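Mods, move this if it's the wrong board.
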Amino acid sequence: MPETKSDITPEHSKGKIIYIDHLKVVLTVLVILHHAAITYGAPGNWYFNEKTKLLGAIVPMTAFVAVNQAFFMGFFFFLSALFIPSSYDKKGPAKFITDRLLRLGLPLVFYSLVLSPFLSFMNYNYTGTHSRITYLQYLGGFDSWIDFGVLWFVLALLLFTMVYAVFRLFVGDRGISKSMPSVTKILTFAVCVGVISYGVRIVFPVGWVLKPLGFQLGHFTQYIVMFTLGLVASRSKWINGADYSTGKTMRTVALCLVFIGFPLFFVVRQLVGFPVEYYNVGGHWQSLWYAVWEQLVGLSIVTALLCIGKTRWNRPSAFLSLLSRTSFAVYIFHPLILIGLSVALHSWAIEPALKFLVVAPLAVAGSFLLGLLVVRIPGVNRVV
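Not the wrong board. Structure tokens:
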């Protein structure tokens, strides 16, 4: 995410890759909506929750979060890795490592020591669950100073990047060249990743978090794979080979998996009658089914977006370019806006699902407005 096309481009890419920046904007919006959905009804934990009990709202929110989880963070890792080999080549090992430590490390320190305590304070002090105290009083009893929150992604990206940098010190990767995989190979690969994810989830169920790093290791099989694929894609010039017909095919596959495949999870559970947790805990056939479905959805959507985007979305847009410039800042600061809005409206006596319809678009707009301000701060704009 921190790299942009203005910094460096994927190796030997032909023509403009504006649509990569456009995709970053879409993914950032999805992150905000994802956390808003968790706030008001979808499964998952967040700083502040006000869950709806309406099944008609819970089901679409759950589907939205499940589909997002299947691809959007993995896609972030892929897009970030896509720019890393040529950035390393351009800057050299010392400058590359220093730059990564600054641009990824400083936000981690800021979030953990500055932003995270205040986010927790808002939930503690303004939701009626505790007697109000001052922020200094709250900090006096605060003991969770290592908390990266949503920046677990940045921490993981930093670790992955450092592993790559060490690898490059000893082994060159310029000779890597893999042809753009076919639809059949992509889907077969997705099944394999799903099976491995299933095995990992026997030990690390979905929802289990490695504290204080914030890593949900049940999802990390995909993240590691997508980061690695991004490196291979850069060296192998996959962007050049992304074609519209492949994108349309994968779009059809993704739509079938989402609108036919996902409802089957509800239908089968109702017919057979097993705990919903079986979908997230390895060792059950339901977990294997869900893990494979998840990876098929994820790789189908990623491939469709890359291939269709190259043809349909690769046009200059001053507005989207501006939003893309703020995407990293928005990712860092969006919890401040979302939590602020949801806490401010917690006493509004309406159905939580309706609050979602109000808070979600306001959180998106407010986060990007704040991002526009942040990237104009001298010094800060060199990091975000």
